[in-house]
Amino acid sequence: MTTKRRNHGRNKKGRGHVKFIRCENCSQACPKDKSIKRFMVRNMIEAAAQRDMAEASVYESYAIPKLYIKVHYCVGCAIHLHIVRVRSREGRRVRAPPPRVRFNKDGKKVNPAAAAKATA
């Protein structure tokens, strides 16, 4: 029988069973190795409160800690929320990560390949 993916959509490899997790969005039970995992990095304090704290604080500069939350999504929700995209049959074989989008100090997008050619 033909297979759609080399790993059958999972990251199990030799384990007979893996624990189920609940999707962050819809609470669907999904195997942990099949779920789409991302780290959500947020400031502990929202922007408005951050400004109030800076005005009331004795210290001139204080690094406010960040909140690192690991979120698990089922495949359906990850596609719906544009965390992952549907790829063509040929595109599914590409295992390299997509190119990272970089921004310069002005907030404009910088193409890493073009920047490397400009410096060389």
List keywords for this structure.
two-stranded antiparallel sheet; 120 residues; alpha+beta; two-stranded antiparallel ribbon; 6 strands; single chain; 3 helices; 20% helix
What this model shows, in words?
With 120 residues, the protein is an alpha+beta fold. Helix content is 20%, strand content 22%. The strands form three sheets. Strands 1-2 form a two-stranded antiparallel sheet. It has a two-stranded antiparallel ribbon with strand order 3-4. It is flat, with a radius of gyration of 21 Å. It starts with 19 loop residues before the first strand and ends with a helix. The model has no long low-confidence stretch (mean pLDDT 89).
Mean pLDDT score: 89
Helix share bin: 10-25%
| Global shape | flat
Lateral strand order in the biggest sheet: 1-2
Percentage of residues in strands = 15-25%
Structural class label: alpha+beta
Taken in chain order, the helices and strands follow as EEEHEHEEH
Specify the number of helices: 3
Largest sheet: 2 strands, antiparallel
Q: Supply Rg.
A: 21 Å
The beta-strand count equals 6
Distance between the termini: 50 Å
Q: For this entry, what is the oligomeric state of its chains?
A: single chain
Low-confidence stretches: none
In terms of topology, how is this protein built?
Layout (H helix, E strand, L loop, with lengths): L19 E3 L6 E3 L4 E8 L3 H10 L9 E8 L1 H6 L21 E2 L5 E2 L1 H8 L1
Antiparallel strand pairs: 1-2, 3-4, 5-6
